[in-house]
Write a structure and sequence with these properties.
By secondary structure, the protein is of the alpha+beta class. About 35% of the residues lie in helices and about 15% in strands. Helix 4 (about 185-195) runs antiparallel to helix 8 (about 325-335), helix 11 (about 415-430) packs antiparallel against helix 14 (about 475-495) and helix 17 crosses helix 18.
C-alpha cells in the first residue's frame, strides 16, 4: 500500500512538472534558450530604491545607474577624425605625443540595491588604454570610447576584469547614444538579438560617465566582440595548426595588414570600398599560412553561394554554412531596419568543430530609422544584398525565414511584447534621461548640429530638417515605436513575397509541358545554345575579341599631351585646348557616394548648368553607369560647344598596398588591363562585369 501511494505521488509530481514546463516554454515561444541578464529587470528602479538616505537626492550626481569615472590627466584623447580636401574622413588625430591610445585611470561605482554618487568609493579601479572608437559616430560631439584594461606597471599586459557585473574580459566599448535620442536602441536590440540568435551576443549595461570630473551623460558599457571563453568561445589556435577557428568581419575602414583577398573581393562582388578583415587568430599569429587557410575556407563558402550549382538547387552550401544563424540574422537585420549588413560591422566566425556562422551582431545605433538618411519601413532592405541575394534563391532557406519570422512575431518580436519592453526600459531609466539632456538637450535643435550629427531632410516625403529630427526625448521614443509597429505590420503582410526570389527550376516541367526524355533534350539544347551565345558575348565584350567586318580604320589620335598643355586635333593641326571642368559623381546631393541614384535626367540637368557656367569639361574618377554616358552623348549631339570628358579609373588598393611600387608587375599589369577595359567600355565594345 505504501509503495502504491509513493508511485501515485511520483506520478502526480511528474505531471505537475510537465505542466509547469509546458506553461514555461509556451511563454518562451520563439526563444532559443539563451539566458540573458537584463539590467532593467535585475537592478532596482528609482521607485524601488525610494528616497536616497545619503543625500536625499541633492548630490550633484545621485543615480540608480552604475557610474564610470575616467581620469586622463589632461591628455588629448586620440581617435577624433579629420577631413581631407574631398570632405571625407582622411585620418584620426593622435595624442599629444603621437600615440593612438593613452593610459588613463578608471573606476566604477556599482553597489547592489543602493543609490550611487559621483564621489562614492570605487567598486573596481585600475589602468586602461583609452581612445575614441566607431566609424561615423566619431564625428559626434558625445563620443564613444574603447577601454582596454591593462596592468598598472605593464601597459602591454592585459588585465582581465568583470566590469559592472559582466563576465571578466579585457576590452570594452563605452557607447555614447547621441544620434539615438531614445538612448536605448543598442541595449534593447542587443537583448532581443540574444534571445533570437541563441548564441553569444555582447552583454550591455547602462551607466553614467564622468570624464575628468565632467558629467557626460548616459552611456552603455558593452562587451566587445572578442574570441574569449567568456565571449565568443572558439577553439584556441596553436601556432602551426593546419586547421583552425577564425573570426572575420566586413568593414569599410580596415587595417591593410589584416585584409584578406577573398573570392567576393577579387570577383568584384563585395560592396565598393569594403574589405574582409581577419580578427582571430590575432595579429601576432597571422602568418601567411593562417591567412591563406582562412582566405581559402571563407572563399569556398562564397564560391558555393555564387556557383551555378546553387541555381540547380544544390545543397552543398548547407555543409559549409550554419543555416539557423543566417535565418535569424536576416530576420533581425530586416526587422530592425539595419541596411548596412554586408557593408559594415558584419561578422562571421567558424569554430574548428563547426560550420561558418554569421554574427555576432553589433552596432544597432542606426536601428529603427535612425540613420542620417531616411530608412523606409515598407520595403525589404536586405533580400537582394550580399550573400542574402544568393540564399534567397534557395527555397528551403526562404521557407525557413518565413516560418521563423512567423514564430518570432508570436513571441519575442510580437508588437505587444516590443511595446511593453520599450516602456519597461524607458521607465527604468527614469531621471537619468533628464540628466543626460541637461548636457545634450541642445541636440534637439538640428540647426545647432553639423550635417554629420543629424538626420537629413527627406526630398521624397518633403520632410524638412526640423521635421526629420525629433524635438524632444518623448518624440524620439514615439517615432521609434511608430516605426517598429509600421515595420512589423508591413513585414507581416509581405513576408510571404520572399518566395519570389526562389529559383523556379523545380516547376520547369509544368511550365514547359515537357517530361522525361523530351525535357532532358530540351534542356541540353538550351544549355548549348546559351553557352554559345554567352561565349560569343564574353569574347567580344569582355575578352576584347573583334570581328573584322570591314577595313579597319587608321589609328587616329584626337588629343595629345604636349609638355604641360593638352592639344586637340582640329582636322588639320593640333591646337592648345584649355579645360575648365567640374567633377561629377553618380549620387544625388546629400546622398551617399555609393547610392548610385543619379539618373539620365539628373545628368542632363547638371550638364546644362555646367555649360551655362562656362565650363567645357567634366571629370569622373571611375566607370559610370549607362545613364551618365547616354546623357553626355545626348548633350554633346545637341549643343555646338560639347563637354569634354576626363575619364579616371580605380586602382587596385590590394595590389598597390602589397607592392608599394607603381611599376611592380602586380600593380602595373592590373592598371593596364583596367585601362584597356575602360577604353572598350566607353566605346561600347565591352560591358561592366
Amino acid at each position: 500500500m505504501t509503495a502504491m501511494r509513493r508511485g501515485i505521488i511520483a506520478m502526480a509530481g511528474t505531471a505537475v512538472c510537465v505542466l509547469l514546463l509546458a506553461i514555461f516554454f509556451q511563454d518562451l515561444e520563439g526563444r532559443t534558450g539563451v539566458l540573458r541578464y537584463q539590467q532593467h529587470r535585475e537592478q532596482p528602479s528609482e521607485e524601488a530604491l525610494g528616497p536616497c538616505s545619503v543625500c536625499g537626492g541633492k548630490s550633484e550626481l545621485c543615480t540608480h545607474l552604475p557610474i564610470i569615472r575616467i581620469e586622463t590627466g589632461g591628455q588629448t584623447i586620440p581617435g577624433r577624425p579629420y577631413e581631407g580636401p574631398d570632405g571625407v574622413t582622411a585620418g584620426y588625430y593622435t595624442g599629444n605625443f603621437g600615440e593612438e591610445e593613452i593610459l588613463v585611470q578608471f573606476s566604477t561605482v556599482n553597489g547592489e540595491g543602493v543609490w550611487h554618487h559621483g564621489d562614492d568609493a570605487s567598486t573596481d579601479e585600475g589602468t586602461a588604454l583609452f581612445r575614441y572608437r566607431g566609424n561615423s559616430s566619431r564625428w559626434f560631439a558625445k563620443g564613444s570610447f574603447r577601454l582596454k584594461t591593462v596592468e598598472e606597471d605593464d601597459p602591454l599586459t592585459a588585465r582581465r576584469l568583470g566590469l559592472l557585473g559582466m563576465d571578466s574580459g579585457e576590452e570594452w566599448a563605452l557607447h555614447g547614444p547621441f544620434l539615438d535620442k531614445t538612448l536605448m536602441r543598442n541595449y534593447m536590440c542587443m537583448n532581443l538579438s540574444a534571445e533570437v540568435m541563441g548564441t553569444w551576443v555582447p552583454e550591455t549595461r547602462f551607466c553614467e560617465l564622468v570624464l575628468d570630473g565632467e558629467y557626460q551623460g548616459v552611456y552603455l558599457l558593452m562587451e566587445t566582440i572578442d574570441v574569449d571563453e567568456n565571449r565568443l568561445d572558439l577553439g584556441e589556435y596553436t601556432p602551426g595548426d593546419p586547421v583552425l577557428s577564425y573570426l572575420v568581419r566586413i568593414e569599410p575602414y580596415t587595417n591593410p595588414a589584416k585584409v584578406l583577398d577573398n573570392f567576393t573581393l577579387y570577383s568584384y562582388r563585395m560592396e565598393p570600398g569594403r574589405h574582409l578583415e581577419l580578427l582571430y587568430p590575432g595579429t601576432a599569429n597571422q602568418t601567411q599560412q593562417v591567412k591563406r587557410y582562412v582566405q581559402a575556407d571563407f572563399s569556398e563558402a562564397e564560391r558555393l553561394l555564387y556557383s551555378v550549382e546553387m541555381l540547380d538547387g544544390s545543397d552543398a552550401w548547407r555543409q559549409e554554412l550554419d543555416m539557423d544563424s543566417f535565418v535569424n540574422y536576416y530576420i533581425l537585420m530586416e526587422f530592425f531596419g539595419i541596411n548596412d549588413a554586408f557593408g559594415a560591422s558584419t561578422y562571421f566566425y567558424r569554430d574548428v568543430r563547426g560550420k561558418l556562422s554569421i554574427g555576432p551582431v553589433w552596432d544597432y545605433n542606426n536601428a529603427f530609422d535612425n540613420l542620417l538618411r531616411p530608412i523606409d519601413s515598407r520595403e525589404f532592405l536586405l533580400s537582394q544584398r550580399g550573400w542574402f541575394a544568393e540564399l534567397m534563391q534557395d527555397e528551403d532557406f526562404v521557407e525557413r525565414v518565413i516560418s521563423r519570422y512567423r514564430q518570432l512575431r508570436r513571441g519575442i518580436l510580437s508588437e505587444e511584447r516590443l511595446l511593453s519592453y520599450e516602456k519597461e526600459i524607458e521607465e527604468w531609466l527614469g531621471g537619468a534621461v533628464d540628466r543626460n539632456f541637461e548636457v545634450w538637450g541642445y541636440t534637439f535643435d538640428p540647426e545647432q548640429l553639423s550635417t554629420r550629427e543629424r538626420q537629413r531632410p527627406d526630398p521624397i516625403t518633403g520632410k524638412t530638417l526640423r521635421e526629420a529630427n525629433p524635438s524632444s526625448y518623448e518624440e524620439a521614443v514615439e517615432w521609434m515605436m511608430e516605426y517598429i509597429v509600421d515595420r512589423g505590420e508591413w513585414m507581416d503582410e509581405h513576408i510571404d513575397s520572399l518566395r519570389q526570389y526562389c529559383h523556379p527550376s523545380r516547376f520547369a516541367n509544368q511550365m514547359l509541358g515537357l517530361e522525361g526524355r523530351n525535357m532532358k533534350r530540351f534542356m541540353s539544347a538550351a544549355v548549348l545554345l546559351l553557352a554559345l551565345v554567352l561565349g560569343g558575348y564574353w569574347a567580344i565584350f569582355y575578352g576584347g575579341f573583334y570581328l573584322p567586318f570591314g577595313e579597319r580604320p587608321a589609328l587616329s589620335v584626337p588629343f595629345r599631351a604636349e609638355g604641360t598643355e593638352l592639344h586637340r586635333w582640329d582636322g588639320e593641326k593640333y591646337t592648345a585646348l584649355t579645360l575648365r571642368g567640374v567633377d561629377v559623381t553618380s549620387s544625388l546631393p546629400g546622398h551617399y557616394a555609393t547610392a548610385y541614384d543619379a539618373g539620365e535626367e539628373d545628368y542632363l540637368r547638371w550638364f546644362e548648368a555646367i555649360g551655362d557656367m562656362g565650363a567645357n569639361a567634366v571629370r569622373v574618377t571611375s566607370v559610370m553607369d549607362d545613364d551618365f554616358y547616354n546623357a553626355l552623348y545626348t548633350y554633346n549631339t545637341s549643343h555646338d560647344q560639347p563637354l569634354y570628358m576626363l575619364q579616371g579609373t580605380d586602382i587596385s588598393d590590394y595590389a598597390n598596398d602589397r607592392s608599394k611600387d607603381a611599376y611592380h608587375a602586380d600593380f602595373l599589369n592590373t592598371l593596364l588591363e583596367d585601362g584597356k577595359s575602360l577604353v572598350d567600355i566607353i566605346h561600347g565594345r565591352k560591358d561592366l562585369p
